[in-house]
């Protein structure tokens, strides 16, 4: 269960967040494999767009994607992380 939801991630306000019982994906950065534990939709102040972050277990941003609308971000999360039923909180 997700109990401590950060209000901001990487300086952007957290709007939606999801945690899976399994990892959403793995990424390799600088030859180090990192698991995506959380997917988060955020928005930076004074930015009209939205970001879909893939975060590790400590909420460090590992991936980010930009969207013009929040609906686009929520919908594309299903495709990117190959999960059809994402439980957003």
Considering DSSP H and I runs of 4 or more, what fraction of the residues is helical? 10-25%
Q: Report the uncertain regions.
A: none
Please give the alpha-carbon distance between the first and last residues: 11 Å
Shape call: globular
Q: What is the total number of structural domains?
A: 1
Range of strand content: 35-45%
- The count of helical stretches stands at 1
- Strand runs, count: 7
Describe this structure in words.
It is a single chain. This protein is mainly β and 89 residues long. The protein has one helix and seven strands; from the N terminus they run E-E-E-E-E-E-E-H. It has one helix spanning 70-81; strands spanning 8-9, 12-19, 25-29, 32-36, 38-43, 50-55, 61-67. The strands form two sheets. The protein has a five-stranded antiparallel beta sheet.
């Amino acid at each position: 269960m997700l109990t401590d939801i950060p209000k901001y991630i990487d300086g952007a306000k957290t709007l939606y967040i999801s945690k899976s019982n399994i990892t959403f994906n793995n990424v390799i950065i600088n030859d180090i494999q990192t698991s995506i534990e959380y997917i988060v939709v955020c928005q930076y102040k004074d930015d009209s767009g939205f970001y879909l972050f893939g975060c590790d277990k400590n909420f460090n941003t590992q991936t980010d994607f930009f969207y013009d609308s929040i609906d686009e971000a929520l919908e594309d999360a299903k495709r990117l992380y190959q999960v059809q039923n994402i439980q957003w909180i």
